[in-house]
Amino acid sequence: MASSVPELLLATLNQLADDDLKRFKWYLKQHDGFISQMGLSPISKSQLEKADREDTVDKMTETYSYVDTLKISLEILRGINQNNLAQKLKSDYKIGQQSGTGPDQHMHQAPAVVKTDYEKHVEKPPSSTTDGSAYHWKLKSYLKDTYTNVFEGIPEAGNSVDLNEIYTELYITEGGSGEVITGHEVRHIETASRRPARSEISIKCNDIFKTSTGRGKHIRTVLTKGVAGIGKTVSVQKFILDWARGNANQDIHFIFPLPFPELNLMKKEEHSFVGIVDHFFVGVKKSGIFKNNNFKFLFIFDGLDECRLPLDFENNKSCRDVTKSTSVDVLLTNLIHRKLLPSALLWITSRSAAANQIPPECVDQVTEVRGFNDPQKEEYFRKRFSDDEDMACKIITHIKTSRSLHIMCHIPVFCWISATVLEDLLSEKKTGEIPKNLTEMYSQFFVFQSRQKNRKYHGQAKTVSHWNKEMIMKICKLAFQQLQNGNLIFYKSDLKECGIDVTEASVYSGVCTQIFRQETRISKEKVYCFVHVSIQEFLAAVYVFLSFNNRNRNLLSKTLSTRRLLTQFRTKSTIEFHKHAVDKALQSKNGHLDLFLRFLLGLSLESNQILLRGLLNERTRRSEDNEETVKYIKEKIRENPSPERCINLFHCLNELNDHSLVEEIQSFLRSGSLSKPNLSPAQWSALVFVLLTSEKKLDVFDLKKYSRSEEGLLRLLPVVKASRAAL
């Protein structure tokens, strides 16, 4: 292995094609690029014009220190999309340091290139209080190290990938849908997937602060909405990385991401705004950058829906001084109200239901992340399996066979879950059923993650039971309690309440993963969440199901006396259990139990119980029980006037593998006799479900084809809503 910086760099340049070498040298000559931002001088054009690889290495090491040579080389390699070479160069350099024979011998103990926490990037903050160029470069260097490599789904050491390698452009629109989401977010995704393209303006992630043609207003605050897992945080990461690499938004001098989950930890203390930023990015106070009015700042607040601050815009006192100490809530409301740092840019991301916490007059532009459209779904899988085209094609084909799975793939996290499960099943050529609905997919994902945990930490083969029953129940209990409380993030105290040891939880990172970054200096306490809210809902359903099956406890019963009665007489009534679940979900005003109900009912199928063997004490559910449950759901469909509620009940029937009502309506549609019979309420609901879940996009909907009655018009309102126009 090369033992000096020149040898390492030469070995790297030897792997570049001639065109890439030409681009590499082009960056070395730029007077307005990142080399100048480092406070260094570029190499003159005449010196590089006829330089071969050896000459290029010589010129760089003669002009710059070995440390700067490596920094510059890594930056250029990433800039010309040679991320693998950059990673190899960085790794070889680190190995050389660890062996004691590497390039450090020639550097007079210079600091390492690869840094992991912010202090190491700002060991010597600039002494000047007006010139922030040195701090600007150090901030960019830190953000590049932080956001270049990301963990897809699970932050697990060794599984990081370059963001640019897996990033698939998301569909983002200006203005958003204007719709206030009152039901479950999955229903919003299912409805949005049916809408044809309207006259909405799509926008690139890097352009959110740019005005559209014909609009002259200045954009100071952007509010980006989107359902959980749709790609808001990844969009933030991409924006920051492109800025740090010098590829976009270079008019901004400093970007400071301040996530709400970590700000929550400061809510009981008083800080100055500069002090808060300094907690995240050491050296801000000493740099004096906030004293220079010519600097352009961007503060990014990711995850408004996870904010546990009151955000009292009406009653909070005024604060215009960045050095004045007060509560975090007061600082944030004044920043958003333009009283504090009025010229600074703000970017706030939020799930749609929580976005109304920000007064409309404080927001200049609203954008909505819609996730993946159909071509982007395929692009994701092809990127994910770039070295196995056959696997990508198999997965895409299978996803398309299930309408419910294909719709859910609008959510990038669900694409990751599907890829994880289907790669495992298809590559091993198992004889079992490939998942066709949500409960099957999540059950397989649950099993896969548990097996991965055993292989990683215990070296156990697949034949050995992979469940730690006690720990699984604790994690599932946490999911259920937090779902009831409406929380997506939780803290160490929440884990302790469920009897979960923090170290144990980290072993189960596949289902309960840390999102608290190690470099944060706010608190030693860590923040936890499930990979996606749908996983939390699935685990909550598992907890309720296992509590009933194994302990005769109906956690959904209305009174404690009912639970005690069940336990006392050791009676198990699956039908009553399911009725409680259906009734409770229907009583929810915001539909927050809709997906939970689908999972809970789906777990009653023997195929899913087989996957959970080892957790179940016994499998004694009779098919007649599910038949009675199906009858009860159909009764509720007939009784319930709400089309939205009925649509979710049809999804529940789908999880129970009952398609009778849908098949009946499809038969009417095929025969052309739909308008002849007087449809029952259940048949009307089935018609709406069929129209909304068909593969055909709803552009112009001809109401006359289906009904001329007032009742028919009311029943078909969800279809009209999902269409561009109705006749």
UniProtKB/TrEMBL annotation:
The keyword Methyltransferase does not apply. It is found in: Cytoplasm. It comes from Salvelinus namaycush. The gene is LOC120035873. Residues 1-90 form the Pyrin domain. PANTHER family: NACHT, LRR AND CARD DOMAINS-CONTAINING. It comes from the Eukaryota. Pfam families: FISNA (PF14484), NACHT (PF05729), NLRC4_HD2 (PF17776), PYRIN (PF02758), WHD_NOD2 (PF17779). GO terms for cellular component: cytoplasm. This is NLR family CARD domain-containing protein 3-like. GO terms for molecular function: ATP binding. Transmembrane segments: none annotated. Keywords: ATP-binding, Cytoplasm, Leucine-rich repeat, Nucleotide-binding, Repeat. Residues 220-354 form the NACHT domain.
